[in-house]
Amino acid sequence: MSDDFLSRLREEPRPEFKDRLESRLHEIDAREGERRSAPSPYRRFAPAFAGAALAAALAFAFTLEPVRAAAREFLDLFRVKRFAAVPVDPARLERLAKGGLDFKSLVADQVQVVVAPQPPEAVDSPEAGAVRAGITAQLPAVLPARTELAEAKLSPAASFRVQVDTGKLEALALAAGADEIEIPAFWNGATIDVEVPPVLGVRYARKTDAAGAALPREDSFVLLQSAIPQVELPEGFDLATLGRLGLRLAGMSAIEAESFSRAIDWRSTLLVPVPVQGGTFREVEVSGHKGLLVTFRPPAPADASAPRPRAQGLVLWLTDDKVMALQGPGSSEGIELLEMAQSIR
Amino acid sequence: MGGVRILEWFAPAVPLEGVDWEAVYREEMPRVFNYFRYRGLERATAEDLTSATFEKAWRARERYRKDRAAVSTWLLAIGRNVAIDHFRRSRPEVPLVEDTATDEETPETAALRAGQSRRLTELMRALPERERELLALKYGADATNRAIATLTGLSESNVGTILHRTVVSLRSRWDEGGPQ
Question: How many domains does chain A have?
Fold first, then answer.
């Protein structure tokens, strides 16, 4: 039974209508962007600068705990030298949030924005962006098939001032059931100056597959690089205590957190959370530097007719003077990502 | 603490809900538009309702969850609500295609197409509401039977059975009208 007679009447919308509606959607973005003072979700570089946000967050995470004191002679230097993965149960965090734990207010109430983070801006080339970021751009010599440089953007520097509130940290510990962790009273009121360095983001797009079919934007590869944040810590500031609190919030038992805490050097290790469901991680070597490969396979959509999202991978590594992140589609082996990362010079 | 902070940023960095909304607009807008056309609405009204659908969807994008439905299904769910509101207010039953030639058509081809569409609209108008809705989703919006089942609450096999029966009946009446 042919049903051609039913489908042959489909028609293309008029181009002028298509353009007019698209403009209206852009207007909605502009209005909402102003209202929220936040970058619009209708942006061409969304996956890339979700990644930039990651890099900024990494930088921010380095600096949450430490305090910059006025007298340098009292300071220790915290410089990240390696990444370590820590399994995190997002459902646990969600449960804690539902139970009344408001992570955002616990942090945001103590944060004063000194230099507001700006949306990433387009730059003429990766090299031009690198000059403005104060770094030397390193780019991949090898790209996956049919992949080419699509755009480069620069996320400007930002800075924050955080005031430690031991009462709130104790509330966090309580909510996490981590009553074994004692928050030193002398931390209260300590001021932390956080500086997030500029981040250069370069997106490489694979526009079509082998059969010439268009690919979704998720198939882009995004390379982020920025100077390594250095953090000055006041003498005696115990990072391990805060670290253990983070591990307990993430879902580790007191014993696991204690054991994990003893195994790593908190002054040089940045923890990267990996969701327990669908996430994998392993240590890798990128051009002689130790790095971390994290992959995540999103759960199958409830609507079985919907295509299953592709696995995404993230390689993090440090060169002598930069923190690098490469994000893109990939299998749990992350072979394509790793090959690309290895070719970065 | 550091781990928790990173998690907040890490989640969006791996675009679990990552949707290229520009591509969605390009790909899905014609399907939503044709859904309204197959509901028997004239072009101007279909354009208005397509606009209303996308404007609603645009404002609600951040609430879209990929694990719950394909974006095409989500958009059609919004479109169906827009259609329900429209039909509640008024119930115009007009030809599916106006007598206007597109750039690629000769006046003769346009007239033939308009004639066919009028006939089809008349045939569809005689169908019960549920069958008309299923046809609009299947042939206007090019939705899969599974997506239609999700949207309508019918089982997938039920959708297939109803569509088959409806198409057989329409085909028979279509053929009775002579060569096309």
Answer: 1
